[in-house]
Amino acid sequence: MQTQRRIRSLIDKYIAVEKLHERLQDLPIQFVNPQRRPWKPIDWQAINRNQIIGLDAEVFLSILIGAMNTEAPIRGYTQTSRQYLEKLHPQMARFVGGTDLFGVRTNDK
After folding, report:
1. Residue ranges of the alpha helices (H) in the chain?
2. Can you tell me the distance from the alpha carbon of 80 to that of 101, in angstroms, rounded to the nearest whole number?
3. pTM passes above 0.85
4. CB neighbour class for 20 (10 Å; exposed up to 12, middle 13-18, buried from 19)
5. pLDDT (tens digit, 9 = 90+) per residue, 16-57?
6. With contact defined as beta carbons under 8 Å apart, do 85 and 93 qualify?
7. DSSP-assigned letter for residue 50
8. Neighbouring C-alpha atoms within 13 Å toward the C-beta of 8
9. How far is it, in rounded angstroms, from Cα 89 to Cα 93?
10. Distance, CA of 94 to CA of 81 (rounded, Å)
């Protein structure tokens, strides 16, 4: 029961119709003037083993390691994407990887 309540809470918070609508409404604006959405830093020391519900802590950690290994190369290839899109579709290039290599504004800063 506790796991189901937690899943429902996460669904309501992150994929509720209102949230999805807000993101879809924002998409055309992001193409014109891309803005990074801030991510709050994770205080890894504040995570207690009893907060991991429904799976073994080792499985949870394996999932985290897999996610970090997947996300780590993204900065590099977003800049590569920006570079080849720059001439083809400048707005998409800004959306994908920022504005330029020389500090005007890039998404990985």
Report:
1. 2-14, 17-32, 57-71, 74-88, 90-97
2. 11
3. no
4. exposed
5. 888 888 888 888 887 777 776 667 888 888 988 888 888 898
6. yes
7. G
8. 5
9. 6
10. 10
